[in-house]
Design goal:
Elements (H helix, E strand, L loop, with lengths): L1 H25 L1 E12 L6 E13 L7 E9 L3 E3 L8 H7 L9 E13 L2 E17 L2 E10 L6 E10 L4 E8 L13 E10 L11 E3 L9 E9 L4 E8 L4
Antiparallel strand pairs: 1-2, 2-10, 2-11, 3-9, 3-12, 4-11, 5-6, 5-10, 6-7, 7-8, 8-9, 12-13
Length: 247
Amino acid sequence: MRRALALTVAVGVALSTAVVCATAASAAPSTATIAPSLSPNRLHAKGALKLTIRFAGGEFGVPSPVRKLLLKLPAELGVDIPNLRSCSAARLRARGARGCPARSKIGGGHALVQAHAGSQLITENIALWVFLGPLHNFQPTFEVLGRGYTPLQKQAVLSGTVVPDHAPYGEALALNVPPVPTLPLEPNASIAALTLTIGTSGHRLSRHSNTVVVPGSCPVGGFPFAAEFTYADGSTGSALATAPCPQ
């Protein structure tokens, strides 16, 4: 009887430990990495900035939803907008991307969102459009329209501002991310990956194009980028990266 009781206790302790370990593993902190690139990567060039952000960790392998994102850009990296046109968040919500002036568009991209609903992992690809928004307190703003088609068929508008930053950065893009509902009584969706391209490059470039302007000099080690994240669970994180100097 004592051996049986001892064995039962041992098995119970082992199972409890396994459950604790599995819970701890499934609730790993949310993390992120950023990968920037400039095209063309040439001093003083007008072109585009491509930025990819990947998220990991979180419960059941789904990172906690991002609520705030602050992207720090290299000093002297600028945006050239020959024809100053803007589009408001209200207009985007009411009319979609086609309801905005063509020259107010400054970029686009795509995102992958995920949600763990019951025992299933729901994923959806989101198309993104980036527009110049109206000035706010004499500071530039931007609006990001995200639209998914299946399985959720969701649309959201993310509003952001451009704020000054300190060296080695010049300006920062501050973006608020609203909750993305999924199914009734299920968790909100999380961004797993995000790719944005700001500006225009290649054969599409014209004198009317909105472009990113590469600085006239490059710091040792490359152009610095940084990002700070605030997640829905109250945690925060950061990431650093560099874009290589022109050869």
